[in-house]
Amino acid sequence: MDFDNLNIWCWLIPALVGIVCGIIGYYWGKGATKALDNTADLKILKERNAKLQADLEACQDKTSKVSIAPVASVTANKAGTSVNFDALAAKTAMGKAVKQDDLKIVEGIGPKISEMFKENGIKTWKALSEVTVARCQEILDSGGNRYKVHDPASWPMQAKMCYEGKWAELAKWQDEHKRGKL
To answer: Which of 139, 165, 154 lies closest to 107 in space, CA to CA?
Structure first.
């Protein structure tokens, strides 16, 4: 670049334009930052907060007055044996409501297979946990060709976890072994 042929205006005009833009930007920005009156919004939010605090305290009072059942309650099933079944723990671990001795909680057992097992005298988790895999396969084979795709290898083990109340362990196992296969 040849600096000998540049005159003063080549430097002065951009400098003046920059100064003028800076002054205009300063006053424009200064006008936009006027103090906003947010007191009405602040008052509304404080009222909402106070109402929510009151609701929270009321809920805490209600829950403290309600007697909480023991974590593992002992109930008697139809066979007369006692089983530890905690519906709340089961629901928490499995993510859905669980009925006692519902065979469908076992990964791979649906309504039809559950009905087939009940017809063959296997109505509880304890009964399923004591059955051999070969016997499970016999029951499936008695249902016809549509049940050949099912693999009952893990069903007694899963039923045992249900019977023993090992819900977190069962949920973890089912997450790791999709479709109930070992």
So the answer is: 154
Q: Is residue 152 part of a domain?
A: yes
Closest alpha carbon to 92 in 173, 170, 156, 160: 170
Residue 125, C-beta contacts closer than 8 angstroms, at least 6 positions apart: 83, 101, 103, 159, 160, 162, 163
Task: Give the helix ranges, DSSP H, for 66-149.
Answer: 87-94, 111-119, 125-129, 133-142
Helix and strand tally (H, E) in the chain? 8, 2
Q: Containing domain of residue 41, as a range?
A: 37-68
**Long-range pairs of 23-28 with CB within 8 A, sequence gap ≥ 24:** none
Is the same domain home to 56 and 144? Answer: no
What pLDDT, in 10s, does the model give residues 95-106? Answer: 889 999 999 999
Confidence band, pLDDT 50/70/90 cuts, at residue 120: very high
